[in-house]
Amino acid sequence: MELTEKLKIKDAGKVAGILSYFTIIGWLIAYFGFHQNKKTAIGSYQLRQTLLLHIVYMVVLFGVPFLFGSIWTADGIFSLSYVTRLLVFAFFVLWIIGLIGAINSAKKPIPFLGERAQILFSTI
Description:
- The chain is mainly α.
- The chain is about 70% helix and about 0% strand.
- It is built from 5 helices and no strands.
- The protein has helices at about 5-20, 25-35, 40-70, 80-105, 115-120.
- The longest helix has 28 residues, at about 40-70.
- The mean pLDDT is about 85.
């Protein structure tokens, strides 16, 4: 394998890792467009992390209001909308940490989710 081919495969893994952080559509494009034919360790690592990040985000974003919306009676700072906004901000921070790791091609796990993602999605 030529050096230029090795660089292209390495770049495809990095691009897949970065692209996977931009919505679930970006994850699908990264997986099917970049990763499936040119698998790399960093691409697999980032795809596993972002898949769990996207799944947990969707569950929190839609599940918390659905489950607690009718029984949550607190007002003011403890209202359900403020709690949901706080959770969305926490996911944004996790997203930034993961994206920086993908840009640097580092295998740095996202706090709280990264290690679990590597175990759950080890086949990616």
